[in-house]
Design brief:
Layout lengths: L10 H6 L7 E4 L3 E5 L7 E7 L6 H7 L1 H18 L5 E3 L15 E5 L6
Antiparallel strand pairs: 1-2, 2-3, 3-5, 4-5
The structure holds adenosine monophosphate (AMP) and zinc ion (ZN).
The site of adenosine monophosphate (AMP) has 13 residues, from loops.
Length: 115
């Protein structure tokens, strides 16, 4: 998959639009959260802005309020699913393991996490 992946051919845009099924955890006007298909923790949720930004750097530059909102949604998911502890990860760029170029926060929670 190319890093130049455009919004019109974006897996997470299709999930947000309901064209590809997902296990929804949370939704509001700007933000969507769903279970990761290949969980790396007991609870592994992806939180995404409905608008397409390639990565967290672009989101921070163009819509910092949405980035803050994603952190709040992550905290709320971790309170509902567990005791409020969570890890928040944004893989950014190919060398960091980013495979979907629609910014997504990995929320890992539900258990004691490995270092
Ligand atoms: P990253 O490697 O940081 O780009 O994360 C992409 C994540 O998307 C991976 O953890 C995948 O397991 C997850 N993923 C890929 N396809 C789907 C899907 N259809 N539904 C839910 N999660 C997905
Ligand atoms: Zn997208």
């Amino acid at each position: 998959m190319s890093e130049a992946n455009e919004a019109n051919d974006c897996l997470f845009c299709k999930i947000i639009a309901g064209e590809i099924p997902s296990a929804k955890v949370y939704e509001d006007e700007t933000t969507y959260a769903f279970k990761d298909i290949n969980p790396k923790a007991k609870v592994h949720v992806l939180v995404v802005p409905k608008r397409h930004y390639a990565n967290v750097a672009e989101l921070a530059e163009k819509d910092p309020a949405e980035l803050a909102h994603i952190a709040e949604v992550a905290a709320s998911i971790a309170r509902d699913a567990y005791n409020g502890s969570f890890r928040l990860v944004f893989n950014t760029g190919l060398d960091a393991g980013q495979t979907v170029f629609h910014v997504h926060a990995h929320v890992l929670t539900g258990e004691t996490l490995d270092e």
